[in-house]
Each structure stands twice: as C-alpha cells, then as structure tokens.
Design brief:
This protein has about 575 residues and is α+β, with helices and mostly antiparallel strands. The protein contains 19 helices and 22 strands. The relative contact order is 0.13. Residues about 1-5 and about 290-295 have low confidence and may be disordered. Keywords: Kinase, Transferase. GO terms for molecular function: kinase activity; phosphotransferase activity, alcohol group as acceptor.
Length: about 575
Amino acid sequence: MPRGSAASVFLGVDVGTGSARAGLFDEKGKLLGSASSPIQIWKEKDCIEQSSTDIWHAVCAAVKSACSLANVAPEDVAGLGFAATCSLVAVDADGSPVSVSLSGDTRRNIIVWMDHRAVNQAERINATNSPVLQYCGGGVSPEMQAPKLLWMKENLQESWSMVCRWMDLSDWLAYRATGDDTRSLCTTVCKWTYLGHAHMEQWKESDSRDMEACGWDNVFWEEIGLGDLVEGNCAKIGRSVAFPGHPLGSGLTPTAAKELGLLPGTPVGTSLIDAHAGGVGVMESVSDAGSKAVSDEDAICHRMVLVCGTSTCHMAVSKNRLFIPGVWGPFWSAMVPEFWLTEGGQSATGALLDYIIENHVASPLLSNHAASQSISIFELLNKMLLSMSHEQNSPFLSALTQDTHVLPDFHGNRSPVADPKSKGVIYGLTLDTSEKHLALLYLATVQGIAYGTRHIVEHCNAHGHKIDTLLACGGLAKNSVYIQEHADITGCPIILPRENESVLLGAAVLGAVAGKKFLGVRDAMKALNAAGKVVNPSSDPRVKKYHDAKYQIFRSLYEQQLSHRSTMAQALQ
C-alpha cells in the first residue's frame, strides 16, 4: 500500500466504559492528536449494558476527529489497533446485535465488564473445582465471560439460540473492522478460561499467524452446562487465536475504511483488553538511568503497571508461571508475548472516588468553587488538603486522616481476597457536612485504594514475584495526591510515562506491529514507551510508621466484616 510520507503514524483506539477514544502516535511514541466520543450505557441494578452499534459510531467519530486534529492523512496511517473493556458482545450470523437485556431492547447487545448479574453463576462454576480455574486465581469472577454466558443461557433462551458469535468487545471491534473473527490470546486467556500455554511449545510470536484454538477445555464447558459452545470447533467463542498485534485478515475492509475515514487494507492488529493495552503502553517506560536494565530479561519482571481509571488493574509479568490465590492468572502471552501475566485489580477506584464526592452534601458547593477557579474537583480537593495540613500543624498531609479509615470494596474485592460480596466500609463518620470533611473523606478513600494496592503487591511478592517499581497510567495517574499516597503506602517509586495516554499508545503498538514496523510487541514497546516523571516514596520515617499502622486497620476492616457476616448468617438460620 503506498504511503503518503516516509514517516509512519500509528493509530490506537480505546473503548472505555464511558467513551471511545482515538490517538495518533509517531515513530517515537509521541502523541500527535487525540479525540473522544461518548457512548451510551444502561444501568439497572446489577445489569449494565451497552450497544455495539452505538460504540462503532463513536469509534468512527473519534478516529475522524483525531485524524483531523493531528492533521494526519489516511495514507499516513501505517496500522491501527483496538483496545476495549472486557465486555461481552452478542451478534447473530449476519453480525447484527442480539439483545442481552431482560428489557428485550435489541440495541443492548453488550454485557458491560462491571456487570454483576452472574454472581450466582460464578459461585456454581467455582464449585466445580475445574483444573482451568487454577489459571484465574482459583475461581472465575462474575466479571469474566463464562458466568455471564451461563446467565444468558439460563435467563434469555431466545437470545441464546440466536447468537452466532460471542465476542470480547476488543475482538468484536477488530472483527467489525476486518471481517476476521480470529480472537486475541489476551481476551480469550484472561476472560474466557482459554489455556494459551497450549501453544507454548509450538509457536513463538515471530511465527505470527492464526493458530487453531487448541486451548479450550471442552470438559469444563460441558461440566458447567455450556457444552453447546464447543460445538463446531468452538465457532461461537473462537476457532482461531493469535498473539496481540498479529495482522488480521486483509486489513480494513472497504466498508469499515469508509466509515473510519481511512484506506482499505490498512493493517489492523489483533486486539488487547484496555488495561492490558495500558501495560503495553507503559511497561518499558524506564528512565535513562535504567536504560541498561531494558535489555535485561529480568528487569521487566520487577515492575507492576497500575492502569488507573474507573477501576484499577495491576499488571505484572514473569518468565515462569506463578499461581497466586485470589489473583487472576497466570496468563501466557496475554499482554507481553511469551511472558506469563499476573493480573490483580480493584473493581472500583475512579468510580469510587466519584461516588464518595458526588454523594456528599457539600458536593454541589465544591463543584461551584472548582468551576469558578477553572480547575478540576480533584485539584481543588488537593489544594484544600494542603491548606488544612498547614492550618492544623499536621506533621504531614497523610496524617489528616488518623481518625478516618476506608475499606474501598464498594463493588466487591477483585484481588487478592477475591470476594465479590465484600462491602465498603467508612470508619470515623461524624455530623460534619463541610467541604473540609469531604476533603478528608476523599483523602481517606485514596489511601484505602492505595492500601488495597499494597495488599496486592505484598501478596504477589509472597507468591514469587519481585515487584519493586510501579508504573502508573490512566486518568487517576494525573492526580498528584493519588500517586504520592500510592508511593508512600507501597514503598515503591512510581514511574509516570511521558505520554499519559498509555492505553491509546498500547493500542497503537498493535497497529505498528501489524504494519510490520517492528518485529514484535516488545520491540515496539521499547521504541515507543518513554518515561516522564518519577515519584519517590517519602523518606520521612514517620510517614512509613503512620501508613503501617493504618494498613493494619485497613486489613482488620475486612476481617471484621467476615466475622459480622457470619454472625448475621447464623442469626437468620
């Protein structure tokens, strides 16, 4: 395909929970321009749904806007990649939407990643103790696809019989763009119980091709009541798989190219889940001082990436498989090809901070003050905390919350206790309704989230990891207090990438690999990742002592909850 210029541009598309975004990057990983377009979401109790038609329209709008803003011509785009939430898409034989909603609304053909309708199904699947469960921390989460599929079969039989393809959202986007329904090792391994290491002996990333899907455990699917999904060589859930970045089909179809404003045949890489794209977009962002370590195979295994958005994913890789109770994985080649991925996570972080702020009586007043100063609510809260620290002669900012403790499990605990029934706790409430009280509650919540990260890091290291450095990306990584608290609480330096749009960059890496500009994903990561600021933990021993004490209280809040749960269960027998 002819190129308009010698320099190549790589396009990354990311579909998050609330918007579709597109970003264009040059050959050094520098962002040239980005744009976003909102997407619709329906929420009814535990059921959270979206529309693939709506999402595709938003993707097209974002891509066209990004190309216009970056002044990039279609012929300059050397490749594109998709990343998305791990939401479940249902389409029929024609690729048309099939409803996943009790409402019967045919637009609503996506069960969103955070949907918790299938808690009961997850419990029943875990009770089978199938061998495949050891590769997802000992049990599936209701946020994974097998429980959602079982819920669909049990509750929406008519839709179940109509579906021709069940797809992860990022795989569906690539399929919609290319007509190739090859699935990604990222999505299938992380969310569908596919055993990617079935390919470990036969294939390396350099062999890039569609691989026959030999990693499905048919016995597992039959055992949980979904044996019909393995009929026809598992056609409904994936007959073939490929490494992330593998070029799909013949690139963009003429129809998709027209809709996106790009050229037919533009290479499209096999996709990634959005958090995993964040890992690819940031994990090699080491400072110049650490550049020697980049060539060291072991160095990447000392890092954990925090992809901080609505939720937070904690991604670490290892050369050997590490089984860690309550933490998803080990997943072979699900993020960095030929490395094993460990994936921890917190189901509500950005969403929790929004909830805490928006449900406080002082929230409207705070919003008005932030708007009058032309700053974000988070920036205003951070400024208030600094002033409060000075006013109260606090030894350090974190000490403001000595009487307020938060267990952030408002949407369950994904890792490391893997308890979707865990509830959030706020300890230390008073009748205070002031903006200052909201600032304290905000800080205590940030700390609770950071203690959760410390728990995950310690748990992973106790089971064989060697994590000593964190890298952070996503919306919350722009929040200075959020990052400093995480550094102080975990005791790890935190590297922030030069380009904060790491998920878009990770998606663009897939396009660069598909366009044959790099030998593989890791080579592209080394070329396109770049470090920005490094945030170090406080050197004040009082800060460490304080957080060690609060961390013990944090841990006890869950233990108390278990005890209370047991007491009440016995009372109702």
